[in-house]
Write a structure and sequence with these properties.
Length: about 40
C-alpha cells in the first residue's frame, strides 16, 4: 500500500517531465520550421 502511494507521485512527475520535454521539442521544431525557410531563401 505504501509503495503504491510513493510510486504514484513519481509517475506523475515523470509524466509532467515527458510533457514538458515534448512541448520543448514542439517549440524547437516550430523554431526550425521558421528558421529553415529563411536560410533556404537566402
Amino acid at each position: 500500500m505504501e509503495n503504491k502511494k510513493t510510486s504514484a507521485p513519481k509517475l506523475d512527475l515523470t509524466k509532467r517531465i515527458k510533457l514538458r520535454m515534448e512541448m520543448c521539442k514542439q517549440e524547437v521544431t516550430k523554431g526550425n520550421s521558421i528558421i529553415l525557410p529563411l536560410v533556404i531563401d537566402d
